[in-house]
Design brief:
By secondary structure, the chain is α+β, with helices and mostly antiparallel strands. Helices cover 14% and strands 33% of the residues. It is globular.
Length: 281
């Protein structure tokens, strides 16, 4: 099942004939009062809502403005240098590393991005500090569906709600990663959430990104140094994971700069394609 947020916070199921608005079914979500939960209520209750049975009127995909499929991620976890060829290009290019200490993921660890940086493809990226290099980084994004702590790798996929495409936008410079990757709109998630049952093996997905029609990055998730189960296990050994938390699995080689006016088109097999316009803040 493909679940999307679109328009003015509408929720829909994406089928071949378009996106079917199922927003009325959200009335069945539990009501919360302060203190509010640390998870995304929709993601936590996906299996209970029966969205797949909805038969609402559809609208064409081309006219829908897609938002992030996760409205309230508790945290965005990101895996740095998780492709060997990307590690090699980072070490070689001063325009990327800026003198920062670059280590393989086993030494670098997982870092956090501000949840306020999340947007959907229909909202676009708005660059800040345009006097500096701003790069695209396409990644498989994993959305956690069930709370867990110290999750074994063998059990990790059972904690996944689904997958979407992620863009980990980055300002190059000497500052710490999280700071340079957390401006508003620097985490793009979309175009929708594909539930985990439709992607039994997240370690065999082609992914790529085009900028203005030219291929920049192209790889397969089988090239990940740490795969999805290992990343979930590692992250959960440090953090409690909650429904709606997002794990960005790392980007392959070919990262490059974008500028206002550019158009990015990111694709991951079995998920889809999202078109993202680049502007200035």
């Amino acid at each position: 099942m493909r679940i999307a947020r679109f328009g003015k916070d509408r929720v829909g199921v994406v089928l071949d004939d378009g996106v079917h608005d199922v927003t009325p079914l959200l009335k069945a979500l539990p009501a919360h009062r302060h203190p509010f939960p640390r998870h995304d209520a929709l993601i936590a209750n996906l299996r209970k809502l029966g969205l797949a049975r909805a038969a609402a009127k559809s609208r064409p995909l081309r006219v829908a403005k897609f938002l992030s499929p996760v409205a309230n991620p508790g945290k965005i976890m990101a895996a740095p240098v998780n492709y060997t060829k990307h590690l090699e290009e980072v070490l070689k290019d001063k325009g990327i590393h800026h003198g920062n200490l670059i280590s393989e993921i086993h030494k670098a660890g997982i870092f956090l991005k501000a949840s306020s940086s999340v947007v959907g493809p229909g909202e676009g990226v708005r660059l800040v500090h345009t006097d500096r290099r701003n790069d695209h980084e396409v990644e498989l994004a994993v959305v956690i569906g069930k709370r867990g702590r110290n999750i074994a790798a063998a059990d990790a996929l059972g904690h996944v709600a689904g997958y979407c495409i992620g863009l980990d936008m980055t300002i190059r410079g000497p500052e710490e990663r999280s700071f340079r990757k957390s401006p508003d709109s620097y985490t793009v998630l979309g175009p929708w959430l594909v539930t985990a049952d439709e992607i039994p093996d997240p370690g065999a997905l082609d992914l790529r990104i085009l900028v203005n029609g030219t291929v920049r990055q192209e790889a397969n998730t089988r090239d990940l140094i740490l795969g999805v189960p290992q990343l979930i296990a590692w992250a959960s050994s440090f953090y409690s994971l909650h429904p709606g938390d997002v794990l960005l699995t790392g980007t392959p080689q070919g990262v490059g700069p974008v500028k206002p006016g550019d158009v990015m088109e990111a694709t991951i097999a079995r998920i889809g394609t999202m078109r993202v316009e680049v502007g200035a803040a």
